[in-house]
Structures are given as C-alpha cells and as structure tokens.
Specification:
Blueprint: H1 2-12, E1 27-30, H2 43-56, E2 60-63, E3 106-113, H3 114-132, H4 135-140, H5 142-173, H6 181-185, H7 199-202, E4 206-212, H8 214-222, H9 229-253, E5 256-260, H10 267-279, H11 305-312, E6 325-328, H12 337-349, E7 354-358, E8 361-364, E9 370-371, E10 386-391, E11 396-397, H13 400-403, H14 406-414
The structure holds zinc ion.
Length: 426
C-alpha cells in the first residue's frame, strides 16, 4: 500500500502544475518471485513503477538478486541490495554488519583519472627511444609495453588513493560526536559506541576508490574502446586490478575499500581541460569537453539498449562501492510500457545491479505541459519558459543547461537515443 501510494504520487507530480519531483530519488527493488513477472505477488507494483518511470524518470531499479550482494538475508529487507540514489552502494562489511545497508554510508571517495595515467605511461615508453626501452618491453612489442607500463602506474595510483582515503578517514574520525549528534544517537549511522568515539560507527562505511574515463584510456592504449573485444579484454584486466587491490586493502586495514564507478559531474570537465592543456587534442580521446563517465560506453555510440547492457554488464560485477547503468530513450517509448518492461527485465537478467532509464521530460513553467519539447516554445501555450529535466548523473536536475558545466552539457547533447535501434510499434 505504501509503495503504491508513493508511485501514484510520483506519477501525479507535485503542485498545481503536476511537476516532476526531483527529490527524493525513487528506487524500485526488483526481486525474482516477488515482483518480476506476471503472477508474482507484487507484479502490479512493477507495472506501476514502469508507468512512473515513463513519465517522471523515477524510480530507478535496484536488482535485489544481484550477484554482488551475495550473502544477504532473504528474511531481512535491510540487507537487500539498494543504493544511496545517485549510485553509491555499500558492499559486505568487514566489521561485522555483513550485507546490512541501513545505517551505513560512503565515508569518502577518491577518483583516478585513467586517461592521464595511460598518457603518462605511453609518453614514458615513447620517450625512451628504441635503444633505451627496457629489454622486457622490447620483447613484448610496443603496444604491450604501453599496457604494462600503464598497469604499473595504475597500481601505484590505487595505492596512493588508498593512502589518501585512510588520511581522510582518520581526519573524519577525529571529529567530536556532537558535530552530528542526531546521526549517532538515532542510529542514522549504525554501530555507534560512545566510549569508542565515532570511529565505531564510521568503520562500517565505505572508502571508495573511483575511476573516470575508461573508454578514453583504452583508446590511448589499444586504439579502441570496450565496445570492441580487444578493448573489453583490457578493460577486464584493469577492473580486476581495482577489485584485487581493494580486497587486499580491506583485509589489511579492516576497512571497507570498494571499487567505485564515479559520477564525476565536475571532474569530467576539469580533468579534460587540464588533459588538453598538457597533451592537446587527440581524436576520440580529448576532442570533446568531457571524459566518459566511469566504465560507461561513450554516450555517442550508436547501439541499442540491449547492446549497451551486454557491454556494461561485463564490468559492473567488479564494482562493490556503486555503479549505475542507464539507457537513453526517446518519446516513442513513453506510451510503450511493454518496451520499458523488456528493457528493465533484460538488465536485471544480465546482473546489472542498478539501472535507470532516461526519457525526455521537458516542462513548461507557464502552463505545466510535460513531455519532450523539441522547439524553444511550449506546444500548448507558446511561451518559452521551458525547463529541461534530465538525469545528468544519477539524480535529476532542474535544468541541465544552467545546473552543469560545459562538459556535462555537451555530454547530454551528444547522448545517442538507444531506442532508435529498436523497432517499436506505437
Ligand atoms: Zn506552456
């Protein structure tokens, strides 16, 4: 009843003009045997959720049966897979809470800019000249030399990221509990023991090692991204390194290090600006204003929703501290709940942990018209007071043209509508 009321409220919208509610972020927990198929007890709620998504972009879909949440307790919903909205998630707690999600959070993240590390590795090899390249690199060929040098540098960067996170964690733990009294006294942060200080609660949270621009990194090293087999092979090696290192740190320090696929709303632009100043414009690497979000397929790739899921689902399993997969849809899908349902089912079947659908949701602030507004004027009242609601990262934003930097704006404009590859009956 509560879920139904929430979804109905979401579909109805807020206030006189029935505006789309930007916050809070709605997440639907999709669970096999509970709400996934006709005949399951809460299938009606899944249908209602899809209807809401078609109109309001929310809810997103969390996959309760995701393999990365193994060890959860089917009798305890507090251990079901969920995210904090944008994408951050809590993996298995090494300090005793297991897969508990409630009362835990992401304590601090740090992000590694993969293309910069790839470029440094490549330039170092190139600068050596054929005579000075270490013998081991001569034997393996120049491309493998780039890759090996990159992996060495990435290993160092992940170690540096770990040191930075520990330093920040210690600093945060040095705070007095009175700085956030409510959180500790009301178990918003679980596990607080007054005698032990706030560390007793914060040690259950996540230290997230993030990444930006896998696609451009691969392009530098092997001249293609992970939409091609060669790129995907290297992508898996890179993600395995992140995963192994985090597992090692987790044991060694008894802190929850996890692999994080960073949203990088601002960093995608500032990192690119700095990269260009240093290395100039390189085709398919730095000829735009932003680096591609984490391990995502570049937004301009012309592939179907199913192909996008096929590719990204090969990498989401390496991440324990949070990731999101989304596909872009056009207006034709808005009235086609069956199409939306097939896409969500496909993502869940392919073990995508957290999935979101982007549909156009423009809004006329003068008359309340909602939908895709192609022109500058509202089709209903002709005024130009249009707000363009988009999911730029995990959350919705009021108007991406004013709320985000130039890099992110360009990224939104370059997004290919994956539904164009579907043969949809209206
Ligand atoms: Zn209007």
């Amino acid at each position: 009843m509560v879920t139904k009321a929430l979804l109905k409220g979401s579909i109805k919208g807020v206030g006189k003009f029935h505006k789309t509610s930007v916050f809070p972020c709605g997440i639907f927990q999709y669970m096999k045997g509970v709400n996934d198929k006709p005949g399951t007890p809460n299938y009606d709620l899944f249908k209602l959720a899809l209807k809401s998504t078609a109109k309001r972009l929310y809810p997103n879909y969390a996959n309760v049966d995701w393999s990365g949440n193994v060890g959860y307790d089917p009798n305890d919903p507090r251990t079901y897979f969920s995210t904090m909205g944008c994408r951050t998630a809590n993996g298995w707690d090494i300090n005793g809470f297991g897969q508990l999600k409630d009362g835990r959070g992401n304590i601090c993240p740090v992000t590694i800019i993969l293309p910069t590390i790839a470029m440094e590795a490549k330039q170092w090899i190139d600068s050596q000249g054929i005579e000075r390249i270490p013998p081991k690199y001569k034997e393996i060929g120049i491309e493998q030399a780039y890759i090996d040098s990159f992996i060495d540098n990435l290993d160092k960067a992940i170690n540096d990221a770990k040191d930075m996170l520990i330093e920040r964690f210690e600093y945060i733990c040095s705070q007095d509990p009175s700085s956030a009294k409510f959180m500790y006294e009301n178990r918003t942060m679980a596990g607080y023991v007054p005698e032990e200080g706030i560390r007793s609660a914060l040690k259950h949270g996540t230290l997230a090692i993030g990444q930006l621009g896998l696609a451009e990194c691969l392009q530098i090293l092997v001249d293609c991204d992970h939409t091609e087999i060669k790129g995907m092979e290297l992508a898996k090696k890179i993600e395995q390194l992140f995963k192994d290192k985090c597992a090692e740190f987790k044991q060694k320090y008894s802190l929850n290090f996890g692999v994080y696929y960073t949203p990088a709303e601002n960093l995608c632009y500032t990192a690119m600006t700095k990269f260009k100043e240093k290395y100039g414009e390189i085709p398919n690497v730095s000829d735009k204003l932003f680096f591609t979000n984490s391990t995502h397929v570049p937004v301009w790739k012309e592939i179907s929703p199913f192909e996008k899921i096929d590719i990204e689902s090969q990498l989401t399993g390496y991440s324990s501290a949070g990731c999101i997969t989304y596909v872009e849809l056009d207006t034709a899908v808005l009235d086609n709940i069956e199409a939306l349902e097939s896409i969500v089912n496909y993502a869940m079947e392919h073990d995508i942990p957290y999935f979101a659908l982007n549909v156009p949701a423009d809004f006329c602030a003068d008359c309340g018209y909602t939908g895709f507004i192609e022109q500058d004027e509202c089709p209903q009242c002709g005024n130009q007071n249009i707000q363009r609601l988009r999911r730029v990262t995990g959350y919705l934003t009021g108007d991406y043209k004013t709320a985000f930097n130039k890099g992110k704006q360009q990224e939104v404009e370059l997004r290919y509508k994956h539904s164009k590859k579907l043969n949809l009956k209206k």
